[in-house]
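Morning. Coffee machine broken again, so started the prediction first thing and wrote up yesterday's gels while waiting. Chain of 239 residues, entered below exactly as on the submission form.
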Amino acid sequence: MSHYVSILTASLNEAGNIEKWLDQICRMITYEKLSCIREVVIVDDGSTDGTIDLILHRVESFPVPLRLIQRKVRMGTLNAQVVGSSTCISEYVLVMDCDLQHPVDFIPDFLNKLEDNPDIVIGSRYIKGGYNRWPAYRGFVSRTATFLSHVLIGNSRAIKDPLSGYFLIRKRMLSNLIPYAGMYKPLLYAVAISHDPKVVEIPVRMEARESGNSKIVTNPAKVVLKYLKEIIIFFKNSR
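Came back before lunch.
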């Protein structure tokens, strides 16, 4: 495989998950012999629960460079992903959560699609074979937000899961999202501002969190209203 990939995640107080996630990534890279993965980059927004120490403890023994970007204040997941992507050394960036909601078992499926030179490979919950194990209120938020994106952003209508947080993308497409770094879902805006991107969807399952609480969905109605306001502003500014 001629393409190289950086794995990128954002963390905030993930002490209950980060060690297991790193173990899974380590095993995947080693046993699957994924030589195309050049590094793992973690952007942390000021964890105070020991997450930082758990990451730093693994740096020396990790099979690929493990880089930690520490930020003292919470600036949001999209901001962390955009900033982190600008430091990545690979042509492609695989974005995923480190809270175990995005199973690492699907990483080879993403990488196999690189043979087709895509711009974006999306881990989709809403195509055949994909699903999630989230509580009903999380599913409501996701489905409602997806419907709104299809209505207001034309580029997203052919994509079943334009709000997925588990995706592989050309680095330049993600790092170009700096003007939108305070917004909600990077994949949607990467698609929206791109001219005819080559997009592939693969089925994935999204698991429930094993430890801790979601940083996003605490009040479903509030999240939907916030997202609606944001996407309307984007829609108006892009016309």
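The chain has one domain: 5-238. Going to sketch it on the whiteboard this afternoon.
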